[in-house]
UniProtKB/TrEMBL annotation:
Gene3D superfamilies assigned to the protein according to its UniProt record, in alphabetical order: Helix-hairpin-Helix base-excision DNA repair enzymes (C-terminal) (1.10.1670.10), Hypothetical protein, domain 2 (1.10.340.30), Nucleoside Triphosphate Pyrophosphohydrolase (3.90.79.10)
Keywords: 4Fe-4S, DNA damage, DNA repair, Glycosidase, Hydrolase, Iron, Iron-sulfur, Metal-binding
Catalytic activity: Hydrolyzes free adenine bases from 7,8-dihydro-8-oxoguanine:adenine mismatched double-stranded DNA, leaving an apurinic site
CC cofactor note: Binds 1 [4Fe-4S] cluster.
Top-tier EC class: hydrolase
Cofactor requirements of the protein: [4Fe-4S] cluster
Protein name, per record: Adenine DNA glycosylase
Organism listed in the record: Thiomicrorhabdus lithotrophica
Any coiled-coil regions, as ranges: none
InterPro entries listed in its UniProt record: A/G_AdeGlyc_MutY (IPR005760), DNA_glycosylase (IPR011257), Endonuclease-III-like_CS2 (IPR004036), HhH-GPD_domain (IPR003265), HhH_base_excis_C (IPR023170), HhH_motif (IPR000445), MIG/MutY (IPR044298), MutY_C (IPR029119)
Length: 365
């Protein structure tokens, strides 16, 4: 056990949780492995206030593993659109199908089986086992990394393997021998509500008296930030193609890559490439209208989006053809035409930038 570990850490934290923690979150009601699993996946890199409406809608449509497994990927992703990190939704769906096929539809109860499911790592498995199955397992999500980095004044970026291993050791040491389900929720709550990334509320922290970062009067120094690396900037031209029935042409993106499995606008590497495509299929590229560009940022790069609008209701001689837009492959992409209203209602999963463009188009009509 660490020489720095105060024996009262868990006790102080649980006392605080009993009176100040969050006890009415949707996934804290009718607790079972499925409900906790879905919440933990949604909460990865996403704040609670953002997740709550998505979680409620998701659980209403997919109340159990069987319902989720039987749904189409398109149905699942339509409930995920706007949450980002879409691989989480795809993996959730795949895992549900695996549970039906390999675990007789019952969520597994042992660590190895749980981490063997797509999209579940050590911390997520620990949270499920602790909260839903009352087994003693530590967690180390972003909130916990921040709490421990500050409490023990850990110097180094938590994403570094050596630092992460140290944090895992401390996380396990601090986890009590009883009430570990409450403790798991408590330490996540501490990071989410008091020990926040910016402007931490140290005054009300239950473990402030033993926090080394607080004693150093340099709390925001921890955790150390990831070494700075300039994000590259990429360009994309998106074609908003509207037919005589006021429908928008979308195609389904490949499973791998950004917005995997979602329906998106035809994408081109340049304005000229879009013109050439329209010319090849007999459309009037002279009717293209350029909209203002905007930037969408991913975890690893910026994407400058250049929208191009084509109203085919005012263009004569246009033929509806199957799409052949390229995203580094020569495969024909599944194509569909959808009303703006159906897209804004979430009837199919579309990326956030496309939602933004559909809202703009809707406002102009």
């Amino acid at each position: 056990m660490s020489n720095q570990q105060p024996p009262q850490f868990a006790t102080q934290l649980l006392d605080w949780f009993d009176s100040n923690g969050r006890h009415d979150l949707p996934w804290q009601q009718d607790i079972n492995s499925y409900r906790v699993w879905v919440s933990e996946i949604m909460l990865q890199q996403t704040q609670v206030k953002t997740v709550i409406p998505y979680y409620r809608r998701f659980m209403q449509s997919f109340p159990d593993i069987n319902t989720l497994a039987e749904a189409s990927q398109e149905q699942v992703l339509s409930h995920w659109a706007g949450l980002g990190y879409y691989a989480r939704g795809r993996n959730l769906h795949k895992a549900a199908q695996l549970i039906m096929a390999e675990h007789n539809g019952v969520f597994p109860k042992d660590f190895d089986s749980i981490v063997g499911l797509p999209g579940i790592g050590r911390s997520t498995a620990g949270a499920i086992l602790s909260i839903a199955l009352n087994q003693r397992f530590a967690i180390l999500d972003g909130n916990v990394k921040r709490v421990l980095s500050r409490f023990f004044a850990i110097e180094g970026w938590p994403g570094e393997k050596r630092i992460e291993s140290k944090l895992w050791l401390l996380a396990d040491e601090l986890t009590p021998k009883q009430r570990f389900d409450d403790y798991t929720q408590a330490i996540m709550d501490l990071g989410a509500t008091l020990c926040t990334r910016s402007k931490p509320n140290c005054e009300n922290c239950p473990v402030q008296s033993s926090c080394l970062a607080f004693k150093q009067e340099d709390v925001t120094k921890y955790p150390f930030k990831k070494p700075k690396k300039e994000k590259p900037i990429k360009q994309a031209w998106l074609l908003i193609r509207q037919n005589q029935n006021a429908q928008i042409c979308l195609y389904q993106r490949p499973q791998k890559g950004i917005w995997g499995g979602l329906w998106s606008l035809p994408e081109f590497e340049s304005y000229q490439a879009c013109e050439q495509y329209l010319q090849s299929e007999g459309s009037c590229q002279q009717s293209l209208i350029e909209w203002d560009s905007f930037r969408h940022t991913f975890s690893h790069y910026h994407l400058d989006i250049h929208p191009l609008y084509l109203d085919e209701s005012v263009v004569s001689g246009v033929k509806d053809q199957r799409a052949h837009y390229n995203d580094d492959s020569n495969e024909e992409k599944p194509e569909g035409w959808y009303s703006i209203q159906s897209l804004l209602k979430g009837e199919v999963g579309i990326p956030a930038p496309v939602v933004k463009l559909m809202n703009r188009l809707d406002e102009t009509k």
